[in-house]
Amino acid sequence: MSDKKDMHTFHIPVMGIGFTVDTPAKVAHYGISSVISLVDDMLIEKMRELYSGKFGVQYTAITEKDHDHRAKRITAYLNLLDKIVHEKFVKLKRSVEEHREELHKFIDMLPDLSAVKQKFHELVAQNTLTRDLHAWLDHHLHPGSIDVNIMTKLDKDNYRNDEKLAVEFNDAHAALRGFAESTLRSSIVFSAGMNPRLYSYAETFNDFYPDAEGNLKKKIILKVSDYRSAIIQGKFLAKKGLWVSEYRIESGLNCGGHAFATEGYLMGPILEEFKNNRASLIHTTFELLAAALKNKNRHCPAQPPQIKITAQGGVGTAEEHQFLLDHYRLDSVGWGSPFLLVQEATNVDNETLNLLCKAKEDDLYLSNISPLGVPFNSLKNNTKDIEKQTLIDMGRPGSSCPKKYLSLNTEFTEQAICVASRQYQHQKVQQLGEMNLAAEEHGAEFQAITDKSCICVGLGTAALIVNELSTKVEGPGVSVCPGPNIAYFDKAASLKDMVNHIYGRLVLLGEDDRPNMFIKELQLYVDYLKAKIADAPRPFTDKQMKYFASYQQNLHEGMKYYSTLFSDFEAKLAVLKRDLLLDLEEIQLSLQEACCVVQ
Length: 599
Prior knowledge:
45% of the residues lie in helices and 8% in strands.
């Protein structure tokens, strides 16, 4: 059983729908792993046509008239990316015979302590024969992983000629099938919570099971916000003979995209719990896995397959990056929002890039625009919001809903529609008008209805604009969902510069006083609680009081943890560049003031 060691200690998480849709084609041959969203098969098909033309690959369109078109589009695109990355990587390694520019870029971007980097420079200094260097490169270098992401809840039913299709043609099921039937040897990230029916469907694909040598062709990554969620989902999958190869912990609030806030549980204590329980997690899930594989008459490895623990959400300095690796023994750290400023790696149009570079803390906020009803990180004045407001001002709120990926509401229709659609908002506003509410209450309800935005289109549009593809169906508006951390980066960067920043060889942060990532998340959680208390109707119910008390208690426990952590490391770590204990005291007072209202 063999697992290649990652070339880098960071990865690029999925961002939106289109921002990272082709990131592997741009960075994987440098050994950098990244994640593609599988939400939008229409965008994926457009990108397949584009890249087929770029790389001289024959292209035959897969249309909506084709049977199982969603899964087939995803499989075809992933196979194309696999081919492109392989060819670019082979060419990169062979550049040792020529000018070596690409090969040296690969090596230069590796961490300074990388054994591969050190050995390469040693071989070059020794004037190692080209054939021997070839052999060494073939053995020690490998591309980054082309991973994919499925939001498990985005699994709407699909229809053909008004006839409901079988469950395996639901959106998430078809996306899973598209990945499972591809040539990739990589991972699928399940995010946004547990979907037992989808997890059970994964059982039907051989690539998720270990072969005779114990290797997995397709691996599973669970994106989780706490240890409890990880162990529940890990055990559920293990009982089906499916191994979770990585638990990817994401901050509940200090992240981009949808914010799945915990009940006041903070990232530091959560990472500590994973560190302390890692051996138990492996042992418990492997026992269940072995029993399940035996019952299925499948190969079972003698030892547990590798489990990685990774994290992402708000990291912004080399010191924070290294601290997470060292103190919590993480295998990788996700760097998301800063890569929105790297046009070599992601699809960000110039107008949105300019907004991101200028963004300050007050420009970034948790919005209610997502049709999923989950808080969503937003940037003020993004072009999709401007487009949405224009339609409201014209008296025609809502989207034409050209893609329907978030069609999950059946309040007015038998077949589900999206709450951001013109069809839904028109009927909902009419219903509101019949309620004869006072002007202030009517305005608040109208705002709540029309605030919902067509993000399943907006989050993919930048990829079309950047690649000069038609936006006739989608419109030109771009939704963007950076994490709060983007406020401290104020200029575009090259891929090499961003990697150098991650490894401490360059500093890209602006002049603003940036809080430590843990302190920032804590402040976000306190602000979130304050907003919850302010918005809750009076008098508070017993359920609300219990929630507020639990949230407050969890925050207090987290602050006690940080007080000990920061005291222990204050004299040792460059990461503590300001008085974090003083920051904690200030936040503590802020929390006490907020919770006095609940007493």
